[in-house]
Amino acid sequence: MIQVRNLVKTFGTFTAVNDVSFDVAEGEIFAFLGPNGAGKTTTIKMLTTLLRPTSGAIELDGLDPQTKQNEARKRFGIVFQDPSLDGELSAAENMEIHGVLYHVPRKLRRQRSEELLKLFELWDRRAEQVKKFSGGMKRRLEIARGFLHTPKILFLDEPTLGLDPQSRNQLWTHVKKVNEAERVTVFLTTHYMDEADRVAHRIGVIDHGKLVAQGTPKAIKEQTGKESLEEAFLALTGSTIRDESAGSADQMRQFARMWSGGRR
Amino acid sequence: MSAIYILWLRELKRYTRSRVQIVASMGQPLLYLFVLGFGLGPVFQRAGNGDYRQFVSPGVIGMVVLFSSIFSGLGLLFDRQFGFLKETLVAPVSRLQIMAGRTLGGATVAVLQGLLVSLVCVIAGFRPVHPAAVPLALVFMMLIAVVFSALGVAIGSSLQDMQGFQLIMNFMVMPLFFLSGALFPLNGLPKVLELATSIDPLSYGIDGMRAVLLGITHFGAFTDAVVLVAVGAVLLVIGAYRFSKIEI
């Protein structure tokens, strides 16, 4: 379903993704793990038409996302790592816009929107402006929105960041459900190794832009001779802490926070 | 089409919800209208140009439409920073439609702002000489709005963050306003200034409004309309192109 060959992305002299190749089969749940700044999000951005690769080939359901952008976009849904909601609009309105952009028919849109908002316990606050939501609620809304249409491939970029255990549990149950019932291929990233161990069929570990290991959770543990995935992950990627440079987006958010009196 | 509509609607909803912004954006034009209107009025009258408030009102309306439409285009920067832009960019909708929805939404908001300030002008004593031509003035308002929304989107697509904002404000938006003849008649200017005013698209928008509302014109209403449509078309193409090249 996803095919990546010798993918490279450089920003100036910095190589964010360096010669990465992997395959994800249809109906598979693939976890893409790596320390901060390893190249996970950059890879997802290239897979989802937001960035053009420097070199290498990508196929989503047989389509090149660079040349067949719209066709490719019809195949996938994505929950982003950082916020992508419109804070001025209500939860229901954010869902509605998403449904319209993804051509979900009106009736189905309303029905699914209700189901999902109820599932993620946002139904009572659906008419409220999103900027008034707490971090966890925003996150839940992003996730609920990601499930509004049924894509062939679902990208989840650190979906559980900032979620409480209840919501996390709800999320993974739902991911497994759509994976089993609708054969949705799932490509996820997370920093929680136990989640990856529990949910993923296969795992790829990326570090410094290079894929350092690939296989089932069991195989990766065996390969490194460790008991848990966490230990295996540390064995593969070392234990030094990585810096991620603050992008212009973060600087801008700070700027905006300054002006809105800390409302956001 | 539904994508264009929903994004247009979004701009409108955002506008009607930010009441503070609506009031704030009226501050500057009101200063021009009242302070300049009354302050320069006597001089203007003595120079034989008639009532300055009559003269400056279309200029102030044009100014509001200019500011409002450019800012809504630059709203792209905020969307980029708060992430909503990503949501629209990965959707299975052509970027042309997304850009169209945004531009039309921004233009609509700008026209609404223009109407609001028109109302204030009328309250302040502005009286169109040709009331029947008010719909035509509205057409000019829309043209100005589309031209500068498209320009705003083109610039917003090319900037990464708000650091360039002051630059745009001081070296583009303000010159566009001051060189447009919003505040002074375009007749008998020094050569350099005349050239500058004649390449400013806003000059044609304001001149067009004056032509239909007051019967005074520098370029002629038809020329005004033709120039605005042509510039608008070019800017829409540039805006759409720049927008299609956005990477996050």
Provide tags for this entry.
A: 264 residues; Rossmann fold; 10 helices; 9 strands; globular; B: 248 residues; mainly alpha
Would you kindly provide a written description of the structure presented here, covering whatever features stand out?
With 264 residues, chain A is α/β, with parallel strands linked by helices. Chain A has helices at residues 40-47, 69-75, 91-101, 106-119, 135-146, 165-182, 193-199, 217-224, 229-237, 248-259, and strands at residues 2-11, 14-24, 29-33, 55-60, 76-79, 153-157, 185-189, 202-207, 210-215. Chain A has a single domain (2-259), classed as Rossmann fold, CATH 3.40.50.300. Chain B has one domain (2-244). In chain B, helix 1 (2-17) packs parallel to helix 6 and helix 4 (52-82) runs parallel beside helix 7 (134-158). Chain B starts with a helix and ends with a helix. The mean pLDDT of chain B is 91. The chains are: A alpha/beta (264), B mainly alpha (248).
Widest beta sheet: strand line-up of chain A: 5-6-7-3-8-9
CATH superfamily descriptor of chain A: P-loop containing nucleotide triphosphate hydrolases
Number of helices of chain B: 11
Straight-line N-to-C gap of chain B: 25 Å
Count the domains of chain A: 1
Overall shape of chain B: it is globular
Radius of gyration of chain A: 19 Å
Q: How far do the termini of chain A sit from each other?
A: 38 Å
Global Rg of chain B: 18 Å
Shape of chain A: globular
Instruction: Please count the beta strands of chain A (DSSP E, at least 2 residues each).
Output: 9
- Poorly predicted regions of chain B: none
Q: How many beta-strand elements of chain B?
A: 0
What composes the largest sheet of chain A?
6 strands, mixed
Q: What summary fits the major beta sheet of chain B? A: none
Judged by helices, strands and strand pairing, the structural class of chain A is: alpha/beta
CATH class designation of chain A: Alpha Beta
**What string, H for helix and E for strand, traces the elements of chain A in order?**
EEEHEHEHHHEHEHEEHHH
Tell me what portion of residues of chain A adopts beta-strand conformation: 15-25%
